[in-house]
Amino acid sequence: MAKKIRGNHDGENGQNENYTIQGRGEVSRETLVNEVENGKHSDHSIYERNGEKYVRANPDDSSENNINKK
Questions:
Q1: What is the C-alpha to C-alpha distance for residues 61 and 48, in angstroms, rounded to an integer?
Q2: The whole model's pTM is what?
Q3: At CB < 8 A and 24+ separation, what contacts does 15-22 make?
């Protein structure tokens, strides 16, 4: 289970096509979405925008674990 997942902003208009997981490296959006849907990363959830699924951190009191925190 990953605590810190970072979006790479590598898609069109800065969307995340790949994510970086500390200690694991780069993971495709499709792979990470499947992992989150299967409960592998309990601190994260899926949201859908314009028919595309993306990963995001669940709300909490910390901004340090947000997907798009640089």
A1: 23
A2: 0.85
A3: 15/52, 15/54, 16/54, 16/55, 16/67, 16/68, 19/55, 19/67
Distance of CA 9 to the CA centre of its chain: 11
Average pLDDT in the 5-34 region?
94
Please report which residue ranges of 1-70 form alpha helices under DSSP H.
29-37
Instruction: Quickly tell me which residue has 């340090």 as its tokens.
Output: 64
52 falls in which pLDDT band (50, 70, 90)?
very high
DSSP secondary-structure letter at 37?
H
| Residue type present at position 56 | R
C-alpha pair distances (Å), 39 with each of 1, 11, 34, 69: 9, 25, 9, 23
Percent of the chain surpassing pLDDT 70: 90
